[in-house]
Automatic annotation (TrEMBL):
<dbReference type="GO" id="GO:0008637">
    <property type="term" value="P:apoptotic mitochondrial changes"/>
</dbReference>
<keyword id="KW-0963">Cytoplasm</keyword>
<dbReference type="InterPro" id="IPR036834">
    <property type="entry name" value="Bcl-2-like_sf"/>
</dbReference>
<keyword id="KW-1000">Mitochondrion outer membrane</keyword>
<dbReference type="InterPro" id="IPR010479">
    <property type="entry name" value="BID"/>
</dbReference>
<keyword id="KW-0472">Membrane</keyword>
<dbReference type="GO" id="GO:2001238">
    <property type="term" value="P:positive regulation of extrinsic apoptotic signaling pathway"/>
</dbReference>
<protein>
    <recommendedName>
        <fullName>BH3-interacting domain death agonist</fullName>
    </recommendedName>
</protein>
<dbReference type="Pfam" id="PF06393">
    <property type="entry name" value="BID"/>
</dbReference>
<dbReference type="GO" id="GO:0005741">
    <property type="term" value="C:mitochondrial outer membrane"/>
</dbReference>
<dbReference type="GO" id="GO:2001244">
    <property type="term" value="P:positive regulation of intrinsic apoptotic signaling pathway"/>
</dbReference>
<dbReference type="GO" id="GO:0005829">
    <property type="term" value="C:cytosol"/>
</dbReference>
<keyword id="KW-0053">Apoptosis</keyword>
<dbReference type="GO" id="GO:0090200">
    <property type="term" value="P:positive regulation of release of cytochrome c from mitochondria"/>
</dbReference>
<keyword id="KW-0496">Mitochondrion</keyword>
Length: 138
């Protein structure tokens, strides 16, 4: 039921032919998505292939629980955040890095889409929920 949108296009669920977001919220979300996509493009170039391959191996290991993979993803995001310029909010960097890593993993092994998407949502809900709510309401 969840949709992965990384390009800033309309996303949401329709109710009686209407999109589930108010026009004002949709505009705000579109602006935020465009800003995050721009930052993501910059980060995309800096993430090394070995980091992605290591995460792919964790996702492929069916003996690891979702919680274990989420913890590993959290560690990777924290490590990558250290190399981000200090003038960027840490939470914003973490959010964008999680999304970029998700995209890179799925581009590497498309069959992992469901597991990677769910893990990323879990990570974002655990680590960045308040930040996301504040960003949208600001």
């Amino acid at each position: 039921d969840d949709e992965l949108q990384t390009d800033g296009n309309r996303s949401g669920h329709f109710r009686n032919g209407e999109l589930g977001l108010s026009p004002t919220n949709e505009d705000v979300i579109r602006i935020i998505a465009a800003q995050l996509a721009e930052i993501g493009d910059q980060f995309n170039k800096e993430i090394q292939g070995r980091v992605v391959n290591d995460l792919v191996q964790h996702f492929l290991n069916e003996n690891l629980s979702t919680e274990e993979i989420t913890l590993h993803m959290s560690r990777v995001v924290r490590e990558l955040t250290r190399s981000i310029p200090s003038d960027m909010e840490q939470e914003k960097a973490m959010l964008v890095l999680a999304m970029v890593l998700t995209k890179k993993i799925v581009n590497t092994v498309p069959s992992l889409l469901h597991r990677v998407f769910n893990t990323t949502l879990n990570y974002m809900n655990q680590q960045l929920h308040n930040y996301i709510v504040e960003m949208v309401s600001a």
